[in-house]
Specification:
The protein contains eight helices and twelve strands. It is an alpha+beta fold. Helix 1 packs antiparallel against helix 2 and helix 2 packs parallel to helix 5.
């Protein structure tokens, strides 16, 4: 009994489960950190991937050490855990968009890490302990190769798209009221507001939105009856400014950070920028042509801001139709 070896311990616990324990702790910390302004984009997704993956890794390690029975049910649960990790990554891609994942790669790096570590644990039994270092080296090489190819293909595709300009195209609505360059085919929506029900005045708002995942390029238009407010009044800029305030307030109670009177296409305008609590920012302008008001603005994630050239490309392309 005196010669019986005890499991090696470290700060992270039993050294046999070092990788799984580190993944579990980092995952919990990432989940508790939350999301939003000042927090790494994709942090919670990374956390859940690591936590779920850590249980799959620890289970596989226990089977390798003979601490638990290597049953079919256990193996299936392990595989399900790994698949759930990639399922979280897929949902994150649907929500945030591929561009956001590229610029904030921790979620995809975590998922690939979980898969690679799990495969190492499975195939180590086939290679034997003497080839353990070679297997780990091969796994590390696989990770490096994966990200090298992944990013190379992405940036190659991006550079082609930018070079040819294929991603941006001129859009003109059916009523030909304007034309504008957009990065994708916009979604059209019409909203009706009734005085005393969902608005102070009755009016119809037309909205066109080009959704790029991490950013939304929006054009909206509506007519304010002259008996409600006459835009020939000196207070017209104040009304345009109030519309800018309302545009960001509708996004998680955001606030305007800058607002300036200007002109656009020789018409009175207000340029504005704002931030929302959910990590969303807005930049754009409102201007009026007689009693008709146009809003031209972009909503985007503060962690992935649009460039000045993209914004100018969007707004400078806007032209009035008939």
């Amino acid at each position: 009994m005196e010669n019986e070896q005890k499991p090696k311990k470290s700060f992270w616990g039993d050294k046999n489960f070092l990788v799984a324990n580190i993944a579990l702790v980092l995952g919990i910390l990432a989940i508790l950190s939350g999301t939003g302004s000042g927090v790494y984009e994709g942090g919670q997704e990374m956390g859940w991937i690591l936590v779920i993956g850590s249980f799959a890794l620890k289970s596989a390690k226990k089977r390798n050490l003979g601490l638990v029975e290597s049953s079919t049910q256990r193996k299936v649960l392990e595989v399900v855990g790994v698949l759930i990790s990639f399922g979280i990554l897929y949902l994150y891609n649907q929500y945030a968009g591929l561009e956001n994942i590229i610029n904030h790669p921790l979620p995809i790096a975590s998922a690939v890490f979980v898969l690679t570590a799990y495969l190492v644990l499975i195939y180590k039994n086939f290679f034997g302990e003497e080839k353990k270092k070679k297997l780990i080296l091969a796994s590390a090489s696989f990770l490096l190769l994966f990200f090298a190819v992944f990013y190379s293909l992405y940036f190659l595709n991006t550079s082609r798209g930018q070079g040819s300009g294929d991603s941006w195209a001129t859009y003109t609505p059916q009523d030909s009221s304007f034309s504008v360059l957009l990065p994708s085919q916009p979604k059209y929506e019409q909203k009706n507001y009734e005085a005393g029900v969902n608005s102070q005045i009755s009016y119809t708002q037309d909205i066109w939105t080009s959704d790029m995942g991490s950013s939304e390029y929006t054009i909206e238009s509506f007519v304010i009856p002259q008996n409600i407010f006459d835009f020939s009044s000196p207070q017209a800029s104040q009304v345009l400014g109030a519309l800018a305030d309302g545009a960001i307030k509708n996004v998680d109670g955001g606030k305007i950070t800058s607002k300036n009177d200007s002109s656009f296409l020789s018409y009175p305008a207000v340029d504005f920028e704002g931030d929302a609590n959910s990590g969303i920012a807005i930049k754009g302008k409102f201007f009026n042509v007689g009693q008709k008001v146009f809003g031209v603005f972009v909503l985007y994630r503060k962690s992935l801001p649009i460039s000045d050239s993209e914004y100018s490309k969007f707004t400078n392309s806007f032209q009035l139709g008939k």
